[in-house]
Amino acid sequence: MGTIAAMATERAIIHVDMDAFYASVEELDDPTLAGKPVIVGGLGGRGVVSTCNYEARKYGVRSAMPTSRAQRLCPQAVFIFPRHDRYAEISAQVFAVFGEFTDDIEGLSLDEAFLDVTGSLRLFASIEAIGRQIKLRIRERTGLNASVGMATNKLVAKLASELSKPDGFLRVRPEEVRATLDPLPVGRLWTVGKVAEENLHRIGILTIGELVRCDPARLQRALGRQVAGLQALARGEDERPVHREVAEQSISAENTFEVDIADLAMAEAWLLRMSEKVARRARDRQMKGRTVTVKLREPPFTTYTRQAQLPVAGYATQDIHQLARRLLHAWWTQQPRPRLRLLGVGLSGFGERAQNDLFQPAASAPQADGIQDRINEKFGAGSLVRAGVLKTRE
Asked: Which pLDDT belongs to residue 257?
């Protein structure tokens, strides 16, 4: 009876991660790219690699690497600027497949999600049957490959998809967890950031198995805190629920003007106002983005968009505004008679929410942003704005 009861309450968690998503979409749309190293990312001097295909990875190219370094490592690669609208279109098809199996979907990004399919097991023979159907339907509808990891919790399910890439399919049963996790480098464990990994290496702990077996007092001296929770994760214990939500694709703000703006200073003031809104919303959601987009509409309905990449993902008002301002200026100087009917700012390119290293302070927003956020939260939105925004209230 005990075994039957345990089986009845055991969770069934699936982690799905599209393989080299942006690059795979580009190869799908342009078959001539097949077999070539493909790198998607910002193309300017401060550009960053968003993703690359497996051909490019053979040369050491990785996500978040400066594009300039990727060019040195793989000069023969095809470099492509991201097409976020197209990626969002394919992502919607992928998430629609998820919704055919469960409502309990936690989107981590456009191409990655956790699914709790515990309630769906009565309709299918096993978690593997669900995983196979997900892979098959994604392939049939998008032409792309997905890696699927299956386990009884999020930690192990994600590791399973990572370990089986590309085009992966792996279930880790409860009795297989230790054998799967123990040989892995300790840095593969969720919450172990670079600082914690270095500290563990200093005391001779290189693998997850060694972390499990280490004396807690010794760990306490090396790391300072969170030892019990860390060793529980190392044993494959993870009680985090799958939060039902859809990955947010972008955060934006825009304004249509009753009278067309023909003055650059006024356009800059509105740009700052909208940058403040976007940055505040991003900080509220703890979502750092890399891509800043400026939307510009000339009368009557000619619309332009300009995009650029931040050096690193962030949500600081100053960083978003400075990049958006450069985009605005570049567009303005190209127009013979610039006028704006609409102006907007967007932040996108969100990856998985950052998994902060538990053993070092998390990065915080700039002090000015923090003060402004607290005052506006207490006294109402717009109570405190930067001086440059005041023009928009005249």
From this structure: 81
Task: Decide if 64 contacts 48 (C-beta within 8 A).
Answer: yes
Classified as helix, coil or strand, 21 is: helix
- 29: number of Cβ within 10 Å: 12
Describe the chain by its helix, strand, coil percentages, rounded to 5.
45, 20, 35
Separation of alpha carbons 103 and 100, rounded Å:
8
Summarize pLDDT for 246-264 with one digit per residue, the tens.
455 778 888 888 788 899 9
- Please give the structure tokens belonging to residue 124: 């299918």
Q: Where are the alpha helices (DSSP H) in the chain?
A: 2-9, 21-29, 54-57, 67-73, 84-98, 127-142, 154-163, 177-181, 194-202, 208-213, 216-223, 227-234, 264-285, 317-334, 367-379
Which pLDDT value is given to residue 376? 44
Token duo for residue 379: 């006294």
**Alpha carbons 68 and 46: distance in angstroms, whole number:** 8
Q: Note if 237 is an active site residue.
A: no
Residues 106, 112, 197, 276: which is the catalytic one? 112
